[in-house]
Write a structure and sequence with these properties.
By secondary structure, the chain is of the alpha/beta class. It has eleven helices and 18 strands. The protein has two domains: 176 residues, Quinone Oxidoreductase, Chain A, domain 1 (Alpha-Beta Complex), CATH 3.90.180.10; 136 residues, NAD(P)-binding Rossmann-like Domain (Rossmann fold).
């Protein structure tokens, strides 16, 4: 099969053996798979990602120097079954799945493993127990947003919103826009979005932000929607060095900070700033099984309005170029890879 492989910060398209489903696993065709910000950071900072993963482990990790097939935001089609499967989802079914496989040799994180391929390949294997059917009539492209929407759903849950706060979303890349969509779905706000790229600010406006600010032109914390609020929650959705310390400096006292962006480099923040302001800092990762299912069904029934989020759909051959262009995204939102196009 064809796949886009990554090793040591390089991405290329090549042929590789088709995967074979093991016990309790299903063989699937990858119909659509999104490029995640953590995929970009994994390419840009592969060595740091591997070093930290080997040191401390965790659910989100990359521990190998070997080539891997990235891609963990996918909608797939059932092709075949491995041994000891229930076969509860017929061949041809569209499914989404939590990107992990539990084997006797250990847990494999789909998209960051050299044992099983991720969604930037024509075929994948998945644990049948983690697969969920896509509701009838749901477009493949919309279903492929389930994983990032589940991440945002979980992040908003972790924020413990009371309804009286103003909200700042720092960064209008795909994860920031996913957080925005979840916030608007709940009626939270006002929601101010800060983003340097003009095209992404337009996407934030289209997806319902109450105010959009270019932080290169002025402080988002000075926006009228935030200055009179009783409390502030900041969602950090950039994931680059210096962002957390910058938020410590600029956020008002008693603010809550939810870190959604994934920074794979060593970073420095100054606790004294947060201590003096009594800031509340919450890191988040992933989602629960129920949150994943809820995200899928909110996408299917239109509760989550995310149509503008998908800006590009590309074949496998264009994956290396897309990663290069996303270093300076300007206008792009979610880029979907369609391995069979």
């Amino acid at each position: 099969m064809k796949a886009a492989l990554m090793q040591a910060g390089r991405i290329w398209v090549d042929e590789m053996d088709d995967p074979e489903p093991g016990v309790g696993e299903v063989l699937v065709k990858s119909r659509a798979c999104g490029i995640c910000g953590s995929d970009l950071h994994a390419v840009q900072h592969t060595e740091a990602f591997i070093r930290t993963s080997r040191e401390v482990g965790g659910a989100f990790k990359l521990t190998t120097d070997n080539p891997v097939v990235l891609g963990h935001e996918f909608c797939v089609e059932v092709v075949d079954f491995g041994p000891d499967t229930e076969r509860r989802l017929p061949t041809g079914s569209l499914i989404c799945a939590i990107p992990g496989i539990s084997r006797v040799t250990g847990f494999e994180t789909v998209g960051y493993s050299d044992v099983v391929p991720g969604g930037f390949a024509e075929y994948m294997v998945l644990s049948e127990s983690l697969c969920m059917p896509v509701p009838a009539g749901t477009p493949v492209e919309m279903a492929a947003l389930t994983e990032p929407m589940a991440v945002a759903h979980h992040a908003v849950n972790k924020a413990r919103l009371s309804g009286s706060e103003a909200i700042l979303v720092a960064g209008a890349g795909p994860v920031g826009l996913a957080v925005l969509a979840n916030l608007k779905q709940r009626g939270a706000g006002p929601v101010v979005v800060a983003e340097l790229a003009g095209g992404r600010r337009q996407l934030a406006e289209q997806m319902g932000a109450d105010s959009v600010v270019d932080p290169g032109e002025g402080s988002p914390y000075a926006d009228a929607a935030l200055t009179g609020a009783k409390g502030l929650v900041v969602f950090e959705c950039v994931g680059v060095k210096g962002m957390i310390d910058q938020i410590f400096q600029l956020a008002p006292p008693q603010a809550r900070v939810v870190v959604v962006g994934v920074c794979l480099e060593e970073d420095v923040s100054r606790p004294l700033i947060a201590i003096n302001k009594e800031l509340n800092l919450q890191f988040v990762l992933g989602y629960s099984v129920s949150e994943f299912s809820e995200a899928l069904h909110m996408l299917a029934d239109g509760t989550l309005d995310v149509g503008p989020l998908i800006t590009d759909q590309i074949p496998l051959a264009e994956v290396p170029g897309a990663f290069s262009e996303l270093d300076a995204p300007r206008h792009r939102g979610k880029v979907l890879v369609k391995p069979w196009d």
